[in-house]
C-alpha cells in the first residue's frame, strides 16, 4: 500500500519549532520560476518534466508569450545529402507556426509538442525527434513536417489545442477581451464613438474644449449614457423626417416578428407610402419588444407605437404579414383586429412567401420529389460535414475548371468561374433550393469524386455506407430527371421571387407578373416534356449514367414486388412525376393567389399603363372609388368619371408617357409633369393602389440587420439602444440629409447639461463628416 499511498506526516510541537524542518516544508510548498531557465534556443532547453510540477503551467505560459524561436535573417548552414547540399529554409516559418529552429544544433523542433509532450497508451513519454534530438533531414522536410502533424486526433493536434487554450487565457489577462473595446486613453482600440470624437476634436478647437481632456473630468461627454443620448437624438430626427414625409397621406403597415440573439421576441414595423415625388417608399419605423406574439399583444404594441409618433390608424390603407397563424387568423388575428377599427386597411398576403410555399411545399407533396429533396440535403450535409471535405470539394472543382480551360471546353472572363460550394437549401429562404440545384448540376463530377474519396479514405464505416448509397442514388436516372425538372420549375419563378422583394414593387405589377408565370407553367406542361427529356439524356450521357428506354416496363419504387404495376417508363416519368408535379404547382398557384381574382384588385389592374392603357376601364375605376368611401366623397365619385375620360385622352396623346411600363413610373411622371394637380382624383386612385404592400421583404431585412447590431457578444443590449442603433443603421439615406445642428439641438433639449455645445461654424452633414474619416 505504501507504493501507492504515501503516509501523511503530522507536525508535532517539537517539529514545528525546528527551523530546518519548517524551512524545508516551506520550500517544498512554494517554488518560484527562475526566468533564467526559460531558454529561447530549443536545443538548449530543459525538458518540461524537469521543472517542478507546480510551475509547469507558468513555464508554458512564458514560452507561449515569447513565441516560437524563429531566427529571421540567420545564415543557415548547409548539409550534404548525396550530391546536393541543403539547409533549413526561412520560408517554412510562414507555413508552420509551431516550427522552431535551434542554432546550436542546426535542427528543427516543435514548440507545441515540447510544451505538451504526447504519451502512448503505456503511460510513458513517446520519444519524438521534434522534441529532444531535433529534425535535420532538410531533403524531405515538408513531407516529414506534414507527417508529424498527422490526422485530426494526432498527438501534435492535441498539443495544439492545449496551447490554444492557454493562449486564449493569456489574451484575456492582457486585457484583449473579445466582448468590447478598451476605452482607456492610451488604447488603440477605443471604439468607433470615442475615436470619432477624438478625430473631430482635433479639427475643431471649440469642440475639443468640451469633449477633450481640456474639459472638466466629469463633463467630457464620453460616457455610454452620452453615446446613447446622441444615438437617440439621431433616431428621433430620422423618425421625425419619415413622419413629415408621410404627412397626411395614406400608408400601409408591414409587421413581422422574430427572436433576437438573447431570445427576446421583437416586432419589426415598416411603413409603405407614396411620397411627394410619386415614389413608393418603405421606411423602417421601429422594432418593439413584445411579451408574446399573440395578436392582441401585437395590436397593443402597434397602437402604442402609432400614438408615440402621432400616426392615425384611420389613415391606414393596407396591411401585410408573412402569413404567421397569429397574424392572419380570420377571427382573432392581427388582421381582423385592425379591420375592426379600420375596414379600409386592405390585407395583402406576402406574395413572396406564397410563391415559396407553392413551389417547395406543393412539389414535395409528390413522394418522389420529397425523397429527392431529402437526398439533396444529405448530399450537401455529407460534402460539407467538415472543413476538410469542403476544402477538398473546392480543390477538386478548381482543378476540373483549370483542366477545362486548358482544353478549351469553357472560356474565361470577368466574373466567370468563381470559387463556389454547395448551398444548403432552406424552406424559409427565398430561392435557396434553386441555388442548391444549380450548383449541384455544375459541380456534379466534383461532388461524385468527394463521395468516392469518403468511401475510400473515411475511418468511419457509417460514413462509407452513406457515401456509397448517395453515389448510387445520384447515378440513378430518376434522381437526374427530378433534378432537372425541379431546376426548371424553380427557374421559372426565380426572377419573379426576386422582383416581388423589391421595395418599389406595386400590386398591379405583381399581379401581371404572376399571371405571366401562370401562363408559362401552362406552356411548360404542354410543351416542356421533350425539352426536359433532351436535357436529362444529354446529361446522363456526359456523366456515364445509364439512359432508360421509355418503352420498357419499370418497377415503381417504394412498393412490394408482389404488388408491382406493369407500367412503362414513359408513363411513370411523364404521368406520375412530370404531369403530377406541374399540375399540383399550377393548381396551387391559382389557389394561393386567389386575391388576384377579387374585385378590388381587378379594378386596380385597370390602371396598368402597358400597351397604352389597353386595360383602362372607367366603370371599374369608378367602382374602385366606391370601395374607399373615406377617401372619395359622393361628389368625388360623380366628378371622377369625367376626369378619368379626360385623363386617358390626354395621356395617350402625351409623348412623355409613351415609354411608361409600370404604375410606379406613371405616378412619378405625373408629378414631374404636374398632371397630379390637373387630375387629383386619378392620382389619388394611383396612390391607393401603390400603397398596398406586395411582400414583407423590408421587414425581413430589418431582422438581418438586427443580427448585425445585436450579436452573441453584445447580447445584453437594451431594447431602446438596439432600436436606436437599427434606425440609424438602416435609414442611412435619411441620416445623411440631417444637419449636425438639428441633432445637437435635440440632444441639448433632451435633458439639462452642464455645458452647452457650441454651434457649428460651418454647415456640414453627419454623413459628410463620416466620409472624411
Describe this structure in words.
The protein has 773 residues and is an alpha+beta fold. The protein has 4 domains: 35-173, no CATH class; 226-350 and 695-735, Nucleotidyltransferase, domain 5; 355-594, no CATH class; 598-690, no CATH class. It has 34 helices and 11 strands. The strands form 4 sheets. It has a 5-stranded mixed sheet, sandwiched between helices. Strands 1-2 form a two-stranded antiparallel sheet. Strands 3-4 form a two-stranded antiparallel sheet. Strand 5 (251-259) and strand 6 (265-274) form a beta hairpin. Helix 14 (351-363) runs antiparallel to helix 20 and helix 16 crosses helix 18 (444-457). Mean pLDDT is 80; it is low at 1-17, 19-29, 121-126, 175-179 and 761-773.
Topology of helices and strands:
Elements: H1 13-16, H2 19-29, H3 56-66, E1 78-81, E2 84-87, H4 92-95, E3 99-102, E4 107-110, H5 111-115, H6 141-149, H7 155-173, H8 192-201, H9 205-211, H10 224-246, E5 251-259, E6 265-274, E7 280-289, H11 295-309, E8 316-320, H12 325-328, H13 334-341, E9 346-347, H14 351-363, H15 367-383, H16 387-406, H17 432-442, H18 444-457, H19 461-474, H20 477-500, H21 507-542, E10 553-554, E11 567-568, H22 569-592, H23 599-604, H24 610-613, H25 618-626, H26 634-653, H27 663-672, H28 675-678, H29 680-690, H30 697-709, H31 719-730, H32 732-735, H33 740-750, H34 766-772
Parallel strand pairs: 5-8, 8-9
Antiparallel strand pairs: 1-2, 3-4, 5-6, 6-7, 10-11
Amino acid at each position: 500500500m505504501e507504493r501507492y499511498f504515501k503516509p501523511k506526516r503530522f507536525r508535532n510541537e517539537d517539529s514545528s519549532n525546528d527551523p530546518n524542518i519548517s524551512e524545508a516544508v516551506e520550500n517544498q510548498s512554494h517554488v518560484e520560476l527562475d526566468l533564467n531557465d526559460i531558454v529561447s534556443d530549443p536545443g538548449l532547453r530543459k525538458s518540461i518534466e524537469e521543472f517542478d510540477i507546480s510551475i509547469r503551467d507558468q513555464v508554458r505560459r512564458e514560452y507561449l508569450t515569447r513565441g516560437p524561436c524563429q531566427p529571421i535573417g540567420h545564415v543557415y548552414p548547409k548539409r550534404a545529402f548525396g550530391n546536393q547540399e541543403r539547409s533549413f529554409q526561412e520560408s517554412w516559418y510562414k507555413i508552420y507556426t509551431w516550427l522552431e529552429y535551434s542554432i546550436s544544433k542546426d535542427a528543427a523542433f516543435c514548440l507545441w509538442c515540447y510544451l505538451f509532450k504526447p504519451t502512448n497508451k503505456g503511460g510513458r513519454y513517446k520519444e519524438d525527434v521534434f522534441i529532444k534530438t531535433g529534425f535535420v533531414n532538410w531533403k524531405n522536410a515538408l513531407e516529414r513536417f506534414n507527417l508529424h502533424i498527422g490526422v485530426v486526433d494526432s498527438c501534435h493536434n492535441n498539443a495544439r489545442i492545449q496551447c490554444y487554450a492557454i493562449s486564449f487565457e493569456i489574451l484575456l489577462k492582457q486585457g484583449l477581451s473579445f466582448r468590447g473595446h478598451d476605452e482607456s486613453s492610451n488604447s488603440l482600440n477605443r471604439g468607433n464613438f470615442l475615436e470619432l470624437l477624438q478625430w473631430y476634436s482635433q479639427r475643431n478647437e471649440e469642440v475639443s474644449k468640451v469633449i477633450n481632456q481640456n474639459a472638466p473630468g466629469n463633463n467630457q461627454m464620453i460616457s455610454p449614457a452620452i453615446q446613447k443620448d446622441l444615438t437617440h437624438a439621431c433616431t428621433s430626427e430620422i423618425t421625425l423626417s419619415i413622419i413629415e414625409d408621410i404627412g397626411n397621406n395614406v400608408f400601409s403597415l408591414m409587421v413581422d416578428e422574430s427572436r433576437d440573439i438573447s431570445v427576446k421576441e421583437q416586432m419589426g414595423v415598416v411603413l409603405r407610402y407614396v411620397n411627394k415625388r410619386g415614389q413608393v417608399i418603405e421606411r423602417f419605423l421601429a422594432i418593439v419588444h413584445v411579451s408574446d406574439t399573440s395578436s392582441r399583444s401585437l395590436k397593443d404594441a402597434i397602437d402604442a407605437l402609432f400614438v408615440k409618433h402621432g400616426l392615425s390608424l384611420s389613415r391606414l390603407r393596407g396591411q401585410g404579414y408573412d402569413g404567421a397563424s397569429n397574424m392572419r387568423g380570420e377571427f382573432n388575428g392581427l388582421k381582423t383586429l385592425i379591420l375592426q377599427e379600420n375596414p379600409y386597411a386592405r390585407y395583402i398576403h406576402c406574395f413572396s412567401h406564397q410563391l415559396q410555399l407553392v413551389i417547395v411545399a406543393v412539389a414535395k407533396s409528390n413522394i418522389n420529389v420529397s425523397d429527392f429533396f431529402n437526398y439533396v440535403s444529405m448530399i450537401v450535409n455529407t460534402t460539407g460535414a467538415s472543413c476538410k471535405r469542403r476544402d477538398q470539394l473546392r480543390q477538386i472543382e478548381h482543378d476540373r475548371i483549370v483542366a477545362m480551360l486548358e482544353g478549351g471546353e469553357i472560356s474565361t472572363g470577368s466574373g466567370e468561374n468563381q470559387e463556389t460550394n454547395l448551398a444548403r437549401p432552406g424552406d424559409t429562404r427565398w430561392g435557396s433550393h434553386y441555388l442548391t440545384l444549380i450548383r449541384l448540376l455544375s459541380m456534379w463530377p466534383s461532388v461524385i469524386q468527394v463521395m468516392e474519396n469518403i468511401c475510400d479514405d473515411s475511418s468511419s464505416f457509417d460514413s462509407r455506407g452513406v457515401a456509397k448509397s448517395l453515389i448510387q442514388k445520384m447515378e440513378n436516372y430518376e434522381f437526374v430527371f427530378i433534378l432537372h425538372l425541379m431546376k426548371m420549375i424553380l427557374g421559372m419563378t426565380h426572377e419573379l421571387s426576386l422582383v416581388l422583394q423589391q421595395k418599389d414593387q406595386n400590386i398591379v405589377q405583381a399581379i401581371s407578373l404572376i399571371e405571366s408565370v401562370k401562363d408559362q407553367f401552362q406552356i411548360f406542361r404542354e410543351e416542356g416534356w421533350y425539352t426536359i427529356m433532351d436535357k436529362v439524356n444529354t446529361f446522363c450521357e456526359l456523366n456515364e449514367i445509364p439512359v432508360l428506354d421509355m418503352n420498357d416496363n419499370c418497377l415503381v419504387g417504394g412498393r412490394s414486388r408482389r404488388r408491382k404495376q406493369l407500367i412503362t417508363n414513359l408513363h411513370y416519368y411523364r404521368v406520375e412525376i412530370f404531369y403530377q408535379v406541374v399540375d399540383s404547382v399550377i393548381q396551387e398557384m391559382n389557389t394561393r393567389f386567389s386575391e388576384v381574382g377579387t374585385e378590388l384588385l381587378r379594378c386596380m389592374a385597370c390602371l396598368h399603363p402597358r400597351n397604352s392603357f389597353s386595360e383602362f376601364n372607367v366603370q371599374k375605376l369608378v367602382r374602385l372609388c366606391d370601395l374607399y368611401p373615406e377617401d372619395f366623397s359622393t361628389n368625388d365619385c360623380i366628378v371622377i368619371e369625367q376626369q378619368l375620360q379626360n385623363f386617358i385622352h390626354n395621356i395617350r396623346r402625351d409623348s412623355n408617357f409613351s415609354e411608361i411600363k409600370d404604375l410606379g413610373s406613371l405616378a412619378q411622371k405625373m408629378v414631374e409633369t404636374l398632371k397630379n394637380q390637373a387630375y387629383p382624383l386619378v392620382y389619388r386612385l394611383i396612390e391607393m393602389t401603390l400603397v398596398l404592400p406586395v411582400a414583407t421583404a423590408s421587414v425581413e431585412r430589418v431582422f438581418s440587420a438586427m443580427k448585425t447590431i445585436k450579436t452573441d457578444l453584445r447580447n445584453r443590449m437594451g431594447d431602446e439602444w438596439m432600436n436606436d442603433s437599427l434606425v440609424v443603421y438602416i435609414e442611412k439615406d435619411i441620416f445623411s440629409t440631417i444637419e449636425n445642428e438639428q441633432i445637437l439641438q435635440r440632444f441639448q433639449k433632451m435633458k439639462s447639461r452642464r455645458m452647452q455645445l457650441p454651434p457649428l461654424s460651418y454647415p456640414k452633414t453627419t454623413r459628410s463628416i463620416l466620409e472624411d474619416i
